[in-house]
Each structure stands twice: as structure tokens, then as C-alpha cells.
Amino acid sequence: MSAVFLGVRHHSPACARLVERTVEELRPAQVLIEGPAEMNGRLDELRLGHELPVAVFSHYRDGQRSATSWAPLCDYSPEWVALRAGRAAGAEVRFIDLPAWHPAFAERTNRYADAEVRYAQATQRLCRHFAVDSSDALWDRLFEVEPHDGLAERLDAYFALVRGDAEADAGDRARETYMATWVRAAVAKAGDRPVLVVTGGFHQPALRALTGSGGESAAGGDGWERGADGWPKVPAPPDGAMAGSFLVPYSFRQLDAFAGYQSGMPSPGYYQQVWEAGPEAAADGLLRVVVERLRARGFPVSTADLIAARSLAQGLTALRGHPRPARIDVLDGLAGALITDDLDRPLPWTSRGTLTTGAHPAVVEMVAACSGDRTGQLHPRTPAPPLVHDVAAQLAGLALDGGPEASYRLDLTDSTDLERSRVLHRLRVLGIPGHGRTAGPEHGIDPVFTERWEAQSVSGREAALVEAGAYGATLSEAAAATLTERTQDAAAEADGLARALFDAVLCGMDGFSEQLLGELASGVGELKDAGSLGDILSTALGLWRHDRVFGVAHGPLLAAVIDGATGRLLWLLEGARGASGVDFPRLRAVVAVRDALLHAPELLSVPRETAAAIAWRISGDPEAPLDLRGAAFGLRRTLAQAPDTSGDPAEAVRTVVTAGTDALGDWLAGLFALARDEVTGAVRNERGGGAESLIDVLDSLVCALPDNEFLSGLPALRQAFAFFPPRERDRIAGRLLERRGVRGSSRSLLRTTEDPLLIARARSLEESVSRLLARYELGATP
Predict the structure, then answer these.
(1) CA gap 217, 236 in Å, rounded
(2) pLDDT in tens, 713-768
(3) Which end of the chain is more exposed for a tag (fewer CB within 10 A), N or C?
(4) HSE (CB half, 13 Å, CA atoms) of 179?
(5) Which residues contact 191 (CB under 8 A, 6 or more apart)?
(6) Is the pTM of this model over 0.85?
């Protein structure tokens, strides 16, 4: 006997019924199904009595790439019906597709992604011919609402047309070659009994050609190795790679094209009713459910509206020549009866894609009613990856498995609470629902030592745990792997890298891999914004020096980040160019570099002398921003082994002031951000001495400024002196009074009854009035 090929559309009730009838009629020896061949030894797991929908979740990870994919199954999936009906008929059932980790599935997260969508030229022509808006409406028109007689022939003609105009990509060709090997092997084993092959319709013409017109061509010559039992071997992942497949619960929401699903039929709730009760009952049910949902939301829907919607749906069914109502007939009838507003966008079922924000409330409820809210559930005996068991054991051991009303207040200085916090954070970074943090430290140097966690909905928890098992067998291993992946994705995003760093701290360091350390260190080495990188360096350095809570002080993770960030910042700063003004984030970055050089020199690959030389070059670079030049001068002053080799601040100020008072203010802001002691130290040490301090030089220069230049530069000068805390400003004020031989409190210079800028403007106004009076000889008589 030969092979019988059934090309189907994934999640089609009509195709599922065709598969069921064909199995009953043929009583085949073998039923071959498009699905992951690595599951063949575990097909009994699919018969445990799950509540559908479920999916085969597959994952792969090595040093170069990671991949995940899903093969969803619902009651009306042709693949599921083939499994169930084939077993019931006594056939040997096999999945025949490549494993999901195989490069043929690169960039594809859904095994059953519709080829008709990817190769759309033919379907577009058919849509124009039958005057329908979308491939989904076309499918309904040709197959779902038509009589079952002749369905197989119509499907063959449809898929031959679609495939005839399309050149399959390399991935599809590899899959088809492998599936054809299984078909040949099955035909050889079946003897005089038929073999039924159920695959996506796009693959059917290629499989016919690869196996001969009837599937009876001899084995061999396909390049795939056979096992001792005659079946093709399932390709094994490369050495050192981690790969596996497990069943996970799925939901109608995940199956719906309006939520972004890539294949099969949209509106799974509606087609579940088509499968169970037929198109007429599904149409009546959809009308009723939409009205109920709208009324529950306060949307006015009368009985007359319902009657009108039903009449419109029936009229459209007849007008379009449908023997039974199609989904689009019902939806268009509802829209015509319930929506009287002008719509600013096409109705969503006229195309394929996600439902956009701002859609009409009636449209939202129609789509939701079609989608349904069913969520699958696995049988309790379904095997799960090791991570599921590890998480359950840790939650129970730490008393974190409370009910839906549970809340936890954790003292991070307590070792037990700290471990509980780490477990909850690891679950958080893996995206496992069930717990949400409502309070706690927000960054590495936030002086908060308590956290509060509240229980949240656990919907989707089981599937999320199984899927997270792709990252590792234990919770700490999985958290480390997902953080490593995040650092790779966030290599050019400082905010993402900073969050990944702090999440790594919150999750604890036990089990964290060398790969994570390397990714974080290399990630900071690729950032382009000095300000953001400075914040990362400051946080990492603060934790490395002072942490007493998270256990990361003097640890390898932060050491690698500190070294990488310091070297990268010195490179960025030396190449900085920009306009006038003060860049405060960049100045904080220079401060962070200074602190790293002073307090953690043993971690750095950049010697102190090299950093001082870089700072000296920046301070003298006429193209560098003035605030950065001042900061670099202060950094050089701080790092110099001997003060007399670091440059004279007084002379530097005299040079800068020639560029204007704005330039002086910007330069001083940079200097004061890095080296305030250059001013306050001189004041303290030189009172009563003969040496001229920097404050003396500044006082002389400012007093010599013309009034208009002083007023112009006053905001920049005030901004520069804002870097001083009150006590240091008090010392500077005292020095100014002393220079003028004035006795009294220095606070008289620090506190005024009015804004200093307002006083300066008033003085300028008075001088303008005086000049005007003098011009007209109206001044007062001496």
C-alpha cells in the first residue's frame, strides 16, 4: 500500500473532522503527524487526560544561541485528533518533524506558524477572486462552512495552488526532507496496509514529490541516519547544549491571532463551539455571549439590537452564498447592529494582527467573546522539568507557599529572610507569577533594609515554571541564565544593564556563572553614555565597599563591573565634545572614576598614573567641554602624588576667565564637583599666611569684572558654588570678610531677604537710571 497525505490547516475544525473520518475509513497501520520527533518516546504523556489546550514546549541553549518554541494542541487541532483517533484505531502513531532546537526553526517560536501567511502571494490572489478581506475569511468560505463532501479534494487543490507559487525557505526544505524519510520508513514497515500522513497543507505537495506520487519510493539517499528499528534517528543536540521538551498548559488567549498568535484559526472560543456543536449553534452562541458581555459593561444593548444583529448575520450569510453562517457573517452583523459611530480604523477581523488600543468597546467585546477564556490544565502525573520540583521544595522549606492572601515582611539583615527574598527575586526575574514586591530597596545604595511581598494571581504559573526550566534545573541556575541573557540583550542600554546588575545582587550570588560575570563586564564596556555608566559604576562601587546586607561586598561580580566601567569611562571622557553648560550626570561619572581609583585600585586594570595622565590631557584640551575640563583638572589634582606636579589652580582660573564669566562658572562647577578641598583646604590652611589661595584669586577676579559681565556670569557662578555644603560655604564667606577687614558673622553673606538675582537686577536698573539722569544733567547737586 502507499501513503495517504492529508494536508491540513492547524486548528481547523473542518480539517480535524476530515482526519477523524479518514482514520475510521482507512484503518491505517501508521499515522504520521507533523510534530516534534523527540516526543515519540513520550507520547503516552499526551494521553494522561489533560484539559486542552496544552502545548509541547521545546527549548535549546548553548554558548552561541538559545531558542524556544511551542506546538499547541486543542480539541479541534487535526494533529491532536490524529493522535487520538490513530491510537483508537490501533495504528502506530509517530511525530515526524525535526526537533525544535534544530536550525530549521531559527527565528520561529511556533512550530505551526502558517506557511500560507509566510507565503502569501497565492492566498492574496484567492482573496481578490472570492472578494474577501483576509485569509481567515477565505478559509471559512472555502472549507469551514461548506459541506464535508469533497473537502479532501478542495484542500489538495488549495494547497497545491499555494505551494505552486512559493519557493520554500531552507528551514522548510530541511524539515520536509526529514519528514519524507519517516514516510518512506513507514511505508516499508506497513506492508499492504495504508500509511496516513497528517501535516500542514503547505508541506503536502513537497512530501508527495519527495516520496514518489504514492509514497512508495525506496528508502535511502536522503542523508538522514536510520536506527536499528528502521525509523529515522532523531537528531541529537550538540555536546554541551541543553535541550528538552515538556507539556505546558496553554490558553485560548494564547491561541488567538488577535493576541499575536502566528498560526491556525483565530477566535479559538468560537471554533471550539463550531467543533462541538456546528456553525449554526456557534453563531447563535456568539450573538448571545457578545450581548451579555456588553450589558455587563454597561453598554446599552436592547432586545431589538439583538434581533437586528441576528437578522443582519442571516442576511449576510445568504448574500455571500454561504450555506451556513461563517464567523465573519456573525461579526459583521453584530457590528452593523451595535456600532453607530464612525470608526477610525478597519474592523480587526478584516485582516490578521493584534487588537489595537482605542478599539470600539463593542469590537473589543466581540473579539473577547470569540477568543474565549479557556485555559488548559495538565494531568497531575505529567512529567515536569527539575526546576518545577526545586521551586516547590524551596517555597515549602522557606514557608513561602501561603495562600492567595499571604503577605511577607522580610528583614534583609536576617539571614533567613534574606534567603526568602533571594528566592522571591529569582522567581521575579524568571517571570513566574504568584508574588509581587510592594516595597524594598530600589537601587544598590538605597538605605532600605526591609521588603514587603504580596501574594498575586497564580494564573499561568504552571506553564511559566515549565518554560523557565529551559534556563536551568535549579532556581539559582535558571535565574543566573536569564540574567545573562538580559545582559546580552541590554549591552547597549545602560538602564537595562543597571537593572540586571541590581537584580543579580538581589538574587544572591550562589550559583551565578562565570558567563554572567563576563557578560556584565563586557556589557559596561559597550555603553556609550557616560552619565548612565557613571551611575552604574557608583552603585557597584558603593555595594563593593559598603554592602552589609546582600553579601556582595568585595565580590567578583562587582569587581568585574567596576574595572570595566572605569576603563570605559576614561575612554569616553577623553573623547567627549560638546557645547557650553554643565552636564551633571557626566560630572557624577568623573566622581565615580575618582572614587574607584582612590578606593578600589586593586580591581582596576588602569593604573593611577595612567588615569592622571588622561585627566591632564582632558583638562588642557580646548575642544573638551569646560565643565569636564574643570573636573579633569580636579581629578588630576586628586590623583597627583605631589601637589606641585598637579598644576596651579589659581593660574588655571586666570586662564579660563579670559573666555568669559559663563566659561569660568562651568569650569568651576567641574572643579568643585571633583576637588572642593582645592578651595576650602586653602582657606583653612592659609589664613594669616602670605600665600594666595584660590578663593583669593576668585575674589580678585570677580571684583574686577565689569558689572554687565558679572551679572551675565552670576547664574553660572552660583551654580558652581552650589556644590559646597553649608559649612564649607560658611568658611568661604568668612574668608571673604577677612579679606575686606570686616568683622561680623559670615552668615550675613549667605542669607539675604531676597533672591540674589533679583538684587543684582535691581542694582543694574539703578545704574541704568543714574546714567540716564546724568545724560540729561538731572543728577543730584553735590
Answers:
(1) 27
(2) 667 777 777 777 777 777 777 777 777 777 766 566 556 666 766 767 777 787 78
(3) C
(4) 31
(5) 1, 29
(6) no
